[in-house]
């Protein structure tokens, strides 16, 4: 089993993916344990002092004015976690909760939160043993971080609430901990607060969305190339000297992909001569690099924000290196929420242009000799008519999901927390958008492959031929109408799993 070590600096994108998706084990670096111990000495000193210190010897939020007696501070931490574990709705995906826990552990490992080593060590052990707290869809306002989701994780650390075990079976947390040889943590001063005050859920979802979108944008370049080829469009507009006139790096990369994807295509070569009467292709074909490229640049910006957040210690209050404990506002999720919303816009627009390319295949007045709806016997057969309806329905929903969550804010905690980020909501809708983009690109893939077969005996490029061959392992070529939904799902699996990109790269080398 792969092991990710936390506490040697910021966790990486690869670390998050290994733990969240691949079930990697987790351990604390010895230096992290030392840093945690040092910060804990500061917290214990303040806990013993007669002067109130927020989060250590006071209540929380709007109740921060109450000084809590020493004998009630353990109860204070338990009550905080229990009351804040107020999520509702469906259970979120296992990978989301594992990412959330890893990123909270990463902050604990910085030595700025003031917990004891046993708290961090037990969280690492839960990840290693595949113990995943049940976290619900609703409950986070994205400020003070993802309070309710993190509280459900802290509750499990205490041996309360429900978890899913390594086999995905729901069980009482106390039972799962016991069977793994772990003891529930008895929280002490500051520890409950330190476990729940972070942007970890929204950040974990951002990291995974960036990974997914980078792969899907390569897949969109592949399907765009198949559409350009199948609709007898030109590849001349993708030339490097034309792209250099507008030097956006993502645009250049996407255009270069299209040139390579279309290299050695008999179909493209067949209409390159002086007798071709086509002047300009439609925007959805000609401008694919501009749209896909802008999407790539936006994803890169989001990755920069995510990398900064991965290097952060998000808690309130924090223990500073000079021994001070200070309140702050670093738990506000605005930086993450903004880019989560931005990526939902990107996903919707890339899906929109993909749907437009697909639609052109189905209209005999625009498809340059292909049968209506690519049907075997138009009128008797409907071909891919309703596949485009499915695309349109998904794109329409994605446009609604592109409405930003981060511009909304409902005050909470008796107006103490009067402006929130809604970053968790932005992340949840982005996950739906990423899924939608994969489905829209899959339908373009399915439709373009059928069109390329119908262009025979002319051969497509080696790269796009590899894409068609991958699909044909599970989906037959042109013929009378068949049950279309399973074919869409096969195409979706090829796109979402990365198999489409890998098949093409095996033929032509790595895509940019």
TrEMBL record:
Class of the enzyme per the UniProt entry, highest EC level: lyase
Cell location: Cytoplasm
Annotated GO CC locations: cytoplasm
E.C. designation(s): 4.3.1.3
Pathway: Amino-acid degradation; L-histidine degradation into L-glutamate; N-formimidoyl-L-glutamate from L-histidine: step 1/3
Keywords: Histidine metabolism, Lyase
Alphabetized InterPro entries for the sequence: Aromatic_Lyase, HutH, Phe/His_NH3-lyase_AS
The protein's name: Histidine ammonia-lyase
Organism: Nocardioides panacis
